[in-house]
Amino acid sequence: MVTASTPSLNAARPPAGIRIVGVAKDFGGDAALRGVDLDIAPGELVALLGPSGSGKTTLLRIIAGLEDASAGQVFFGADDATRLSVQERRVGFVFQHYALFRHMSVFDNVAYGLKVRPRAQRPSKAEIRERVLSLIDLVQLGGLERRYPSQLSGGQRQRVALARALAVEPRVLLLDEPFGALDAKVRKDLRRWLREIHDRTGHTTVFVTHDQDEAMELADRVAILNKGRLEQVGTADEVYEAPASAFVMSFVGDTVNLPVVVRGGRIFFGDAPLEADVADAPDGPAALYLRPSNLALTRCDEGGALGGTVVAVRRTANGRRAEVLTDVGAATVEVELPSGKTLAAGERVGLHILKARLFPTG
Amino acid sequence: MASVSLNTGRLAGPRAVSRRATTEALLARWLLIAITLCFLALFLLLPLLAVFSQAFAAGLETYWAALREPDALAAVRLTLLVAAIAVPLNLVFGIAASWAITKFEFRGKSFLITLIDLPFSVSPVVAGLIYVLLFGAQGYIGPFLKSQGLQIVFALPGIVLATVFVTFPFVARELIPLMQQQGTSDEEAALTLGASGFTAFRTVTLPNIRWALLYGVLLCNARAMGEFGAVSVVSGRIRGMTNTMPLQVEILYNEYNIVAAFAVASLLALLALLTLAGKSILEWRYGDSLDA
Ligand SMILES: Nc1ncnc2c1ncn2[C@@H]1O[C@H](COP(=O)(O)OP(=O)(O)OP(=O)(O)O)[C@@H](O)[C@H]1O
Ligand SMILES: [Mg+2]
Hints:
The complex is a heterodimer of chains A (362) and B (292). Chain A is an alpha+beta fold and 362 residues long. Chain A has 9 helices and 20 strands. In chain A, a hairpin with a 2-residue loop joins strand 9 and strand 10 (229-234). Chain B has helices at residues 2-6, 12-55, 59-68, 70-103, 109-121, 124-135, 142-147, 156-167, 169-182, 185-192, 197-226, 229-235, 245-254, 258-291. In chain B, helix 11 (197-226) runs antiparallel to helix 14 (258-291). The longest helix of chain B is centred in the N-terminal third of the chain and has 44 residues, at 12-55. Chain A binds chain B through residues 64-66, 86-87, 89-93, 95, 97, 99-103, 112-113, 116-117, 148, 150, 164-165, 167-168, and chain B through 185-186, 188-196, 199, 203-204, 207-208, 289, 292. The complex binds adenosine-5'-triphosphate and magnesium ion. Residues 27, 30, 32, 50, 52-58, 210 of chain A line the site of adenosine-5'-triphosphate (ATP).
């Protein structure tokens, strides 16, 4: 890592927070955003997470001023950004496909935002040079400043794009799926590295992704967007442990979902009552969501356990999982296997539900 | 071939097939190349050589004399002048049109695209006639303009108008596909970095399209200097006044002044060849910068 931290790399003034109030966007047909409210603290790193088409890019572009909201306002600190042009908002925007200027060297790309300033505000040539070179160092591309974008790898291009966005001392930093086009290993490296940069420069940052791992690992808080609505905003632990909706639950991790009926405060799966620890639920049909790690294996004849037959055992990146077909309801359930435990297809098992969440359906 | 196809060994089957396939492909390739070359020689190269050989048939002296003749000089001047006005106009129009079409969403966009192609589909003679109908002495607005002391038809403005009309699509047609492919994110990046719209255009858009733009301008220029149909209708063909080079060639030819006709024609051909050379150099550079 680069250790010498020049003051010019830090946000010029204390970073501004972002306040989004009732922002909606209509593209003529379907609504892309339906009344989004979001408060982002100064210096916070928030991940906007959601499936494709949920409006993440649209929201980010509205914050940047590249798109006009149909309704609602965006504030940077106390300033109403909705009244400011793109240029006046001074956002650092990193595009999914880099959008580097292909006819300019790495140096000129990073220097662009400083060179286009009006003469009165433009730093001197020497200052520009110093600032650009230290930014290129910050993104660990020292020595490559003469290269052209076409001579860089995807990961390197994205780092140039970040340096270019940081050069203008932005009030907020906006990144639209910055690592979307990169392979898993590079993504992971860049993720940590981006967090380090964020901690050093202290910009208020909004980061769009559809990769839940990326969002949870990187962000202070995760904002989950679905069909133009914010479903939940919270820390990674909050959205994982206490999802506000079935959508959030199934989006931020692997889930098993069982169609159940609640009668008199008890949960029935098929005809069998289930022993599951859930808060008081209204009577009626519901979906019981649980994570593979929230199931424990027991013997099949143990009381209260859900009986089933192992269909297959699979290896995943994080461990081994058994697919179990339940006796009642004939649902396929995934269970995480403790290390050392072996199971064969056809074996009879019992399942204990350790923890689950109930979401009423219909 | 025969011995191969008779061979029934296990390996021979596929190999024989591929051998035959490539032999056939080779044959077809040479045949196609030969046909193309013959065609080009017969229909393009030979006439070009004929132009120059005819031009110099009566010797260098006569050639120079034919070119130094006042009417010929006037035609050369007029052609260059018309191109010098029409090409920059279409450069600006072309950029504006492609910019509007590729960077904005608006109603009637596909109609606009069709409109840009109009000059390609309408006969130049018809285009010329339209201008006469509009601006002529018996036309719709011609008499009014005449009363204001403005002569459009049978004068320079008419020739420029006709040329602009005919050569309009070249720049736009060259730019639209490229700008569509490049999208708007480069410009948006420039805007977020604080550049004004014009600065973004100058420092980002223009460099991104420069080769295609030059290519379009060269094609536009070649056509502007060579246009015959539309210009012939609106110019009135006044010798030494409203005759462009192509018109001058035709007049000289009709007067059986073969050497002079070919002398002027050779000059026109030379200009075209220069444009072609410029285009080849650009294509070479352009392909390079597209790879990069
Ligand atoms: N310029 C536009 N014109 C019309 N509709 C648009 C436009 N941009 C986005 N949309 C629509 O708005 C919705 C949200 O799009 P958006 O690009 O914000 O999604 P996203 O969450 O960024 O998706 P992805 O993860 O695929 O990038 C989509 O239904 C999309 O079709
Ligand atoms: Mg998007």
